[in-house]
Amino acid sequence: MPRICLLVGAAGSLSLTEAVTAARPIADPVLVLDRGELAASPALAEVARSLATTVAVDMSDLAAVCECVAASGAEAVAAFVDAYCPVVDEVNARLFGRVAVPGRWRKDVQRELLVRHGVSRITNSPVRTAEELDRAIARHGLPVVVKPVSGVASRDVWLLRHPAELAAVPLDGDSVFVVEPYIRGPRRARGPHRADYLSAELFVTSAGTDGFLTDRPPLAAPCRETGIIGPSTLDAAAQAAVLAKARAAHQALGLGSGAFHIEIKLTDAEPEVIEVNGRLGGYVSRLVRLGTGADLASVAIAAALDRPVLDRPVLDRPAPFRPQWRRHVAALFLQAPMDAVLVAAAPGRREIRRLPGVLAVDHITAAGTPLDWRAGTGAAAVKVWLAGDDDDELRVAMASCARWLADAFDFRDARGRRARDDDWLAGLAKAGLAKGCGG
Hints:
By secondary structure, the chain is α+β, with helices and mostly antiparallel strands. It has 13 helices and 19 strands. The strands form five sheets. It has a four-stranded parallel sheet with strand order 3-2-1-4, sandwiched between helices. The chain has a four-stranded antiparallel sheet with strand order 5-8-6-7, covered by helices on one side. The chain has a four-stranded antiparallel sheet with strand order 10-9-12-13. Strand 18 and strand 19 form a beta hairpin. The radius of gyration is 22 Å and the shape is globular. 42% of the residues are buried.
């Protein structure tokens, strides 16, 4: 059985348990974790060592990581944490002879590569200071999106529409952000509970490329993710175009075998790449498991080993490749309003579980917790999993659940007043007027 090193952590697109469980039937897993993270979390260290052979290493020391992977005898390496994707590149280059493209996980370098290969028409500008931001605005015009050059999970992402908003971006001269034009979606909206951007999951081996799409609920202001939905309801021709764009992005970045998560915006012209991630998408494995019963994590690990997915039929494989959805599933993240600074009151897990369509509750932010919208997805007030027999049933469940949660949580602004995001709620509430509610 081949051996694979899995670069994991407390937070990632697969948990330690999920990664090891998925790997066991097809490979001998070795868990590689950051020494500092293990020292700070004895519980994490205990769990890791109970699951598989575990190696502690300083992830910032690339030579040390390569040395431990070589010593393990592994023939492949995979990461499920964004920060470790450049580490995988370095290991693959030094140990396994793959061509490395320096900086391709930085958003400025990635966009340059996509433009150079004709995959994207969007350019961006790295900025560190207010003066550089002014010059970038003069180049690109408003509106623009400003985000950290190596940011993740919607953290510190700004949508600037007016000149007066520029001063709010925390430019300190050291931290690097990128500024790029806001990509406008199609004039014809898809539906109230499905945004105009979506994600492609690609599984690439030397035998070929498979993939499928997942949809997203509308963003919370300014650009915060609010969940994931499966299956995608995009029509077959549009899905084919999005997957073709995702494959072109993979090739433009010089990527090889493995699992990749590619975010794409729909437009009136053609799909536009938002970003490419060198790991399985967050929450996607659980979404597929709840909606199909299939083990997507094993597919990701098989791809990292450059083993065709057919070697282990974890998914039914019509042509083209698609998971076989038995029901529609969504993870819904309630984001606090941008002006909220405190959770004054929160509902209980048991109450939320009683709501129609709710499968599970992952996280509830406790009363008394301070808030900062810039923390992005990680600061969601609650994360709830829902299901429906069809799309109508799911969207009604999402809308009613979101409204109930917004009423049950008491968010307060800096002046102690109750804060709400009724614009986002109103968008989801339109789902309740669909035929599933008799509207």
